[in-house]
Design goal:
The structure holds 2 protein chains of 2 kinds. Chain A is mainly α. Helices cover about 75% and strands about 0% of the residues of chain A. Chain A contains 12 helices and 2 strands, in the order ααββαααααααααα. A two-stranded antiparallel sheet of chain A has the order 1-2. By secondary structure, chain B is of the alpha/beta class. Chain B is about 45% helix and about 20% strand. Classes of the chains: A mainly alpha, B alpha/beta.
Chain lengths: ~300, ~300
């Protein structure tokens, strides 16, 4: 009566075949999802490009989608995403890299055991929490700074602290865990004999870290940065709360809108062509993410070939 | 051996069924509890709702229409969330056989769902556009909503003229001292393009596409929160969203109250539309009953209880 998979050869082979089919189906789900999403984005995102005109969308700065004479220029939105991501990387990566060096090379084990869970915890905090803290702490501080910087200016439009700088700071903190974790693994992967050789030649510990270990872990650190870029450019919830969400040139004290927040903030009420253009923004974002992924794959391949 | 197995299966099934029913009734209990606590803790406006629903329950006991069964799906404006939920709750109490579901996806999305046939009623917090009417949607105005101009609680300027409001939103006046207030920059807060509140606000003031927003936030709550926490901020929101964290400004010396809106002396008000595909008389029985309910005294009481103004 026992029907275990060990029963006999026939049953066993049936189980093997069924398991094989299940594995293939599961693997296909992921692949299908990628293809379906790509196809969906292209099908939904491209009509507006032709209706409004590619130049009119990508190179125009005026965003007035619900106006009587609508304008769908998203140049400022694209630039904001690029500048914002770049600035967040510029701020976040040095901090993250040095933290990774600290964890992998310098820190005594006890201290590393405190810092490492803290970093992991940072990665687990939902992005809306970052946004809320941004509203409560960052925006009021920014507003004070804004008033001080623009005291006496008659042309500046006050944003109440919801501006590009706030968004950049939030993004810089949000990419920390990604960059720290992956850089740290890259540093750990550097073989110990390199360190020993460097130290034996008379280099100090710091010299060894900066001239031997970090260069040896270069490709791993670059992929960490690229993943950080991916995280920053795809983030929506946290920055929609702190960035003010008006379409403006990406200057530090301007209220700005990112590619992600442009979709999030208007999807609810958009209709017709406006809605289609939001899909086009999604397509632009999708293309950006694809480029980032291709770069990442390139780096990883190069690493393997070494 | 086989018999034993069968017994086990049967027993398991019985236990499972018992568990399921247990869960079911528990769930019902907790929902009822939740509703009870909600109504208990909510502000004074809800007492009116209570009264309305009680009456509805009383009426249901005698009403032969209580046998009416079916379902009503509506979707649309987030501004109409309070109204739609209150109507759904009270209506389902009056007609226990009818289930009313409401989603809040935005006015345009709601009308789109209506055109697509996935809902019976599309809620819109603006008048229908010509192309929407051409697609067969019929505009049924069920209530009128006032839009309040909200200011941060420390602001000393609490009375604005229409011209001043227009100048502020056009970016022509940028400091409260120019309006007789303290030396504080004006932070102009508004809603995102496509929002019903923004559409109504700009249309009512003749400000279409002319507003210089410093912040374009994507919900009523976000506007209230931003204005409440930012010195010198000005924003706009549905009248029923006004709470004591902000000041609702007088316009042309007129307080934003129901009486003033009904009397026509307050300048910022807009219709709440429950759109249907074709006339109401061509709808399913439950939908017709819902519109009859809204026109009844009970329905009117309900509309008032959520801070809105009844039509006619």
């Amino acid at each position: 009566m026992h029907t275990s998979i060990f029963a006999n050869h026939k049953n066993k082979s049936i189980v093997e075949i069924i398991a094989h089919i299940i594995f293939v189906v599961c693997a296909l789900v992921a692949v299908m999802a990628v293809f379906a999403i790509t196809a969906y984005m292209i099908i939904n995102g491209s009509p507006a490009l032709f209706k409004v005109g590619i130049r009119e969308i990508l190179l125009n700065t005026k965003w007035a989608p619900a106006a009587a004479e609508p304008h769908f220029g998203i140049l400022y939105v694209i630039l904001t995403s690029i500048v914002g991501t770049f600035a967040a990387i510029l701020l976040g990566v040095p901090v993250a890299l040095l933290t990774a060096v600290f964890l992998a090379e310098v820190a005594p084990k006890k201290l590393a055991d405190i810092v490492r869970p803290a970093v992991t915890l940072l990665a687990g905090i939902p992005s809306v929490i970052y946004g809320l803290l941004g509203i409560l702490i960052l925006n009021p501080l920014m507003y004070k700074l804004e008033k001080a910087v623009f005291a006496g200016s008659s042309t500046h439009q006050y944003t109440g602290g919801s501006n590009m700088l706030s968004a950049i700071l939030v993004l810089a903190i949000m990419i920390l865990p990604t960059v720290i974790n992956i850089s740290e693994s890259a540093l750990h992967a550097v073989p110990d004999h390199l360190r020993s050789a460097s130290l034996a030649l008379g280099a100090s510990k710091i010299e060894t870290i900066f001239k031997v270990v970090i260069p040896a872990a270069k490709s791993g650190i670059i992929s960490a940065i690229v993943l950080g870029v991916g995280r920053a450019i795809g983030e929506a919830m946290a920055i929609t709360l702190v960035s003010g969400s008006s379409v403006n040139a990406p200057l530090p004290f301007n209220s700005v809108r990112f590619l992600t927040t442009a979709i999030v903030s208007e999807m609810g009420y958009a209709s017709g062509l406006h809605r289609q253009v939001l899909f086009t923004i999604g397509l632009v974002l999708f293309v950006f993410i694809m480029i980032i992924n291709l770069v990442l794959t390139g780096i990883l391949k190069e690493k393997e070939e070494k | 051996m086989k018999k034993n197995k069968l017994m086990t299966v049967l027993m398991a099934a019985t236990v499972a069924a018992g568990l399921l029913t247990g869960c079911g009734s528990n769930a019902a209990d907790t929902t009822a509890d939740a509703t009870a606590t909600d109504t208990a803790t909510d502000a004074a406006t809800d007492e009116a709702t209570d009264a309305a629903t009680d009456e509805a329950a009383d009426a249901a006991a005698t009403d032969t229409n209580a046998d009416l069964s079916g379902s009503i799906a509506m979707a649309g404006s987030t501004s109409m969330e309070k109204l739609a939920n209150a109507v759904a709750e009270a209506f389902m109490e009056k007609y226990p056989g009818v289930s009313v579901t409401a989603e809040f996806t935005g006015s345009s999305a709601g009308i789109e769902s209506l055109e697509g046939g996935s809902v019976d009623i599309g809620n819109s917090s603006r008048s229908l556009k010509d192309e929407e009417k051409a697609a067969g949607c019929v505009e049924n105005i069920v209530a009128i909503d006032g839009i309040a101009v909200v200011l941060d609680p420390a602001n000393t300027v609490t009375d604005l003229t229409q011209d001043q409001l227009v100048q502020i939103y056009k970016g022509e006046v940028t400091n409260w001292k120019d309006l007789g207030g303290s030396d504080e920059p004006i932070v102009v807060v508004g809603r995102e393009a496509g929002s019903g509140t923004r559409g109504a606000f700009e249309e009512l003031l003749g400000l279409e596409d002319a507003c210089q927003y410093a912040n374009e936030l994507d919900s009523t709550g976000a506007v209230i929160a931003k204005v409440a926490s930012t010195p010198g901020a000005i924003g706009y929101a549905s009248l029923d969203a006004v709470d004591d964290t902000i000041i609702a400004a007088k316009l042309n010396g007129v307080e934003p109250t129901e009486e003033n809106i009904k009397a026509g002396s307050y300048i910022l008000s807009r219709p709440f539309v429950m759109a249907t595909m074709g006339e109401v008389s061509a709808q399913s029985e439950p939908v017709q009953a819902l519109f009859d309910y809204l026109k009844s005294d009970e329905g009117k009481q309900l509309i008032q209880s959520v801070g809105l103004i009844t039509v006619d």
